[in-house]
C-alpha cells in the first residue's frame, strides 16, 4: 500500500476511529489513563471503534500519531482551568443570556459527583433508584442525562408518570443552586462521597423534545397526545423542536454521505420502509449507482415489516446522526433550528 493510499485511508476514518487508533498506539497503560477522564458515552464509542478496527498498517498508525502531535502542537494552555476565564470568554462571545446556560452545564458537569455517576448506570437501574421520588426530581434527573439515556429511563415508568415528567422537563426553567446541590449530595451518599455543585439551567422544551426523540414511537405518540390534552401550546412547542427521520432531508450531500458510511445496509433498508419519497431519493443520490440500484431492488422485494421495527431502525439512524453532529462531522437541520447547528 502506498503512502498516498495510507494517507487517504486515515483521512476517511471518523474522528472516533482516529481516537481509537491513537488509544491502540499508546498502549494499555497510557490509554487507560486517558479513558479515565472521559464520560461513559465517549468510552463506549471509542471501545466499540477499537474492537472494529482491522488491517491497520504501521504507516497508518504513524500518520494518526503524527496528526495528533501536530494538533497538540497548535494548542495552548492559556486560561485552562480558570472558571472566571471560561465565564468571561463565553459571555463575550455569546452574550449573558445565551452564555449562562452553557457555562452552568460546563461547570456542573465537571463539579458534580452524585448526578454524574448516573451517566454510568443502566437506564433501568436509574429508574429503580428514582422511581419513588417526586416527579419534579425525576424531571431534573432526566434533564441532566443525555437524551438517549433519559429516554431509556422514561420508558421504565408507567404511562401517567411519563407524561407528567416530560411536561415538567419542558417547563423546567433552571434550578436553584441549593436545591441542585442537595440533590447531588443525596445521590452521592448512595454512591459514597460528597461534593458541591454550581447552578444549572437544566430542562426546557428542547430537552423534553430531545428525550422524546429517543423513546419508542408508540410511547412518543401517547405522551405527545396526553400533553396536548393538558397544554396544547406546550405540546406544539415540543413537537416543533423534535428532530424526526424526515428531517434528515435537511442534511447536505456531504453530510449524508458521511452518515451513510456509518449505517448498515440492513438498518437502512428497514428504516426506508417508512420514509417519504423525497428522502429516499436524496439517500439514493448520495450512494454509488450500483448500491442505490441494489437498495431499490431490495425495497421492492422486501416482505412487510412491523411499524415498531421500522421506527426503531429510524431512531437508531437518528442516534448515529446526532453522534456525528456532536462530533462536528455533519450539520443537522430540522425543526430544532439553531440547536442542531
Detailed description of the structure:
There is one protein chain. With 341 residues, the chain is an all-alpha fold. The protein has three domains: 3-73; 112-240, Flagellar motor switch protein FliG, alpha-alpha superhelical domain (Annexin V, domain 1); 245-340, Flagellar motor switch protein FliG, alpha-alpha superhelical domain (Annexin V, domain 1, Orthogonal Bundle). 70% of the residues lie in helices and 0% in strands. It has 21 helices and no strands. It has helices spanning 3-12, 15-26, 28-35, 40-52, 58-73, 83-94, 96-111, 114-118, 123-130, 135-144, 147-154, 159-171, 177-191, 205-214, 217-230, 232-240, 253-261, 265-271, 277-285, 289-301, 307-326. The longest helix has 20 residues, at 307-326.
Any idea what the CATH superfamily of the largest domain is called? Flagellar motor switch protein FliG, alpha-alpha superhelical domain
Total domain modules: 3
Q: Give the overall form.
A: globular
Proportion of beta-strand residues: under 5%
In terms of structural class, how would the helical and strand content be classed?
mainly alpha
Question: What would you say the CATH architecture of the largest domain is?
Answer: Orthogonal Bundle
Q: How many angstroms separate the termini? A: 38 Å
CATH topology of the largest domain: Annexin V, domain 1
Number of strands: 0
What would the average pLDDT be, to the nearest integer?
A: 75
Share in helix: 55-70%
Rounded to the nearest angstrom, the radius of gyration is: 22 Å
* Secondary-structure element string: HHHHHHHHHHHHHHHHHHHHH
Kindly provide the name of the CATH class of the largest domain: Mainly Alpha
Low-confidence stretches: 76-81, 193-200, 334-341
